[in-house]
Write a structure and sequence with these properties.
Shape: elongated
Strand content: 5-15%
Strand order of the largest sheet: 3-2-1-4-5-10-9-6-7-8
Number of helices: 25
Structural class: alpha/beta
Length: about 650
């Protein structure tokens, strides 16, 4: 069984209602609350926004179903079977409609967090929880006599301002912070925590609950925290190791074994509540099979994600008890419902999630390198950090290949001292990669010059991508056509990425790709563009591909054959010479410019390719700029010209 079940059982057995080893004091309540907010925050943070946008109708449909079906079952059960009055019956039914993403960490651990079914369940959560909390606000206001003609207007205005402030204000503030204030990982982590807890704390002013604020904060920061970044690893580790276990233990402590000795009414209420929530959530999840064409395992995972009761259920129970709508039997029944759903749901997600993960593993891989190996040239600590961040974003984590930072020392007098300094530099580099849970294999080479040492290391390791940088303030000629890049281009069997990174990559809003004519016919097109689309997906941004008008159809066909898991749009220019004018209109400080370069003698080579990056470097000195040189076949060893329609 999943470890989550063991934590719940430990809380029940060691809590104050059983052995009494642990007391549910303020520390458990505090850390448990933080753990609940963490679950909602990380669930929104790990959503693939491109998938959510593509399947937003799925989230809307499931959100309405998982609210309406349990609500429709719960009202008659509470009114006619249990004998509650209408306000209490409606409030009790809203408890069945809400749910908590308690089992989301299991889906994330299994690697299915970006599956469309999981994304649908996560997106539907905010819809059904918001509607359930809206019912709670209205019923509580009616019971307390707060409902008047302006009640609905105040509630709608408060929620609208609250949502708009988070979804539009937080990203702007975060971009400014990451660009101008953040200097290390600690500052970034503290900023994220402060943002989440602030959004959750002010939710009551808008008539909402903290879990909604935490979820909205995750959506607002989604595009600014890449999934494979150091910051994301720290967020996940802190939650999984500290806050979420505290929450599970605190939920387990709520179980009172004396409930089962309280008489027939307590049994009837508890059994009715458990049966209603399981039947209602099961029907809502099963409806995704005919309506959304999900498989059996996907529907079961959706059920396992949507059946756990915790946050909104506890909020509605406590409010209903305080205003006199519920008695002790309902409180005990709610606790039993929470415990039963929290025990069953992890087993369902773990079992059927494994089936989904195995099925996804059998799918054909993306058209890319069979074995990705990334080599990063490091000359100083300040220049190495952004290059390593770029490498982590491009790296495919599935094969588990390490990143190879390499430092080259000139062969001559003082080489021993230079080697010691390089080893010290690489030790810090390894620490940066380790903090993101990325394996590293540092290398120090003594050679005649940097280019020769990098090329020798690349051949020895059979690296498929080499990333190098340059000084931020230099002439454009030195940027792209200095001796280093020219010598590195002599080896034609790998991709070379030259990077000038002036601002943090996670603050960019879009990647503009300048694609020269016939570049889609180069042998390394798929390998190179697979890295570009992976970078776009990690940053949560779309691609705008600029190409010559006559090559739009061929380029679009090749990109679709790549099966990119990010949004892309193709924009044409009348002639390749007009691409600079187009960039003048499109390029803004929050854009990432990427040029697809071609080695001299390649199929798409033309002399204008040698001057365009130089002019752009001078025209946009403050923009992040990348030049990706695709691998090409040796002319004497290749006599095959591929057609644009051939997906191979």
């Amino acid at each position: 069984m999943p470890g989550m079940v063991g934590l719940l059982a430990a809380g029940a057995l060691l809590g104050p209602n059983a052995l009494g080893v642990l007391a549910r004091d303020q520390s458990f309540v505090l850390f448990g609350t933080v753990g609940l907010l963490y679950i909602m925050f990380t669930a929104a943070l790990e959503i693939d926004m491109a998938v959510l946008k593509r399947y937003r109708l799925h989230s809307l449909v499931f959100g309405l179903l998982t609210f309406a079906i349990p609500m429709g079952l719960g009202v008659p059960v509470a009114r006619y079977l249990l004998g509650f009055e209408w306000p209490a019956a409606i409030l009790l039914a809203s408890m069945f409609a809400s749910h908590t993403l308690l089992t989301y960490p299991i889906a994330s651990r299994l690697g299915i967090a970006r599956n469309q079914a999981v994304t649908t369940a996560v997106g539907g959560t905010i819809i059904t929880d918001s509607l359930a909390l809206l019912v709670l606000a209205v019923i509580a206001g009616m019971t307390r006599g707060e409902v008047d003609e302006q009640f609905g207007q105040r509630l709608a205005l408060g929620l609208s301002l609250y949502v708009a402030l988070i979804l539009f204000g937080v990203p702007a503030l975060a971009r400014w912070f990451f660009r101008h204030v953040a200097r290390d990982g600690v500052a970034e982590f503290v900023f994220v925590l402060a943002t989440v807890f602030t959004c959750a704390a002010v939710s009551h002013l808008a008539g909402s609950e903290p879990i909604v604020g935490a979820f909205l904060a995750g959506l607002a920061l989604n595009r600014l925290i890449p999934h494979n970044s150091t910051l994301m690893n720290r967020i996940q580790f802190t939650g999984d190791a500290l806050f979420i276990p505290f929450f599970l233990l605190s939920v387990g402590m709520l179980l009172d074994f004396g409930v089962f000795l309280a008489g027939f009414k307590a049994w009837a209420v508890a059994i009715s509540m458990v049966a209603t929530v399981f039947v209602g959530k099961w029907l809502a999840a099963e409806s995704t099979r005919p309506l959304l064409r999900y498989s059996r395992d996907q529907a079961r995972v959706v059920f396992g994600l949507s059946v756990p009761q915790a946050a909104a259920t506890l909020a509605a129970t406590m409010v209903g008890f305080e205003i006199g709508l519920f008695d002790d039997a309902v409180v005990n029944g709610a606790i039993v419902m929470i415990l039963v759903s929290c025990f069953v749901a992890p087993i369902l997600v773990d079992r059927h999630g494994r089936n989904m993960a195995q099925l996804e593993a059998l799918q054909p891989p993306e058209m890319a390198e069979s074995m990705q190996r990334i080599l990063v040239g490091c000359s100083s600590a300040s220049s190495a950090r952004p290059l390593l961040d770029l490498a982590m974003l491009i790296r495919d984590p599935v094969p588990g290949q390490p990143i190879y930072p390499v430092a080259v020392v000139d062969d001559g007098e003082g080489a021993s001292e230079a080697v010691a300094a390089s080893e010290k530099l690489l030790a810090g580099v390894v620490g940066q990669l380790s903090s993101a849970n990325v394996p590293a294999h540092p290398l120090t080479r003594i050679d005649l010059n940097a280019a020769s040492g990098i090329l020798r290391a690349r051949r020895e390791l059979r690296a498929t991508l080499t990333i190098v940088g340059w000084r931020q303030r230099s002439a454009g000629t030195e940027f792209f056509f200095g001796s280093l890049v020219e010598q590195l281009l002599q080896d034609r069997q790998y991709s070379l990425l030259a990077a000038r990174l002036a601002t943090p990559l996670n603050t960019c809003r879009r990647i503009i790709v300048a694609m020269p004519p016939h570049a889609e016919l180069e042998e390394g097109f798929f390998a190179g563009m697979a890295n570009v689309t992976r970078l776009a997906r990690q940053l949560g941004v779309g691609l705008l591909v600029l190409c010559e008008r006559g090559h739009e159809a061929a380029l679009r066909a090749r990109l679709l054959a790549l099966r990119p898991q990010c949004e892309f749009r193709v924009q044409t220019v009348d002639a390749w010479s007009g691409v600079l004018r187009a960039l003048n209109e499109l390029a803004t400080p929050d854009q990432l410019l990427l040029f697809v370069g071609v080695r001299p003698g390649g199929y798409a080579w033309r002399t204008s390719l040698g001057t365009l990056p130089e002019r752009v470097a001078r025209r946009f000195p403050a923009l992040n700029l990348l030049v990706l040189y695709l691998p090409t076949a040796d002319a004497e060893n290749s006599d095959v010209v591929m057609s644009a329609e051939d997906p191979r």
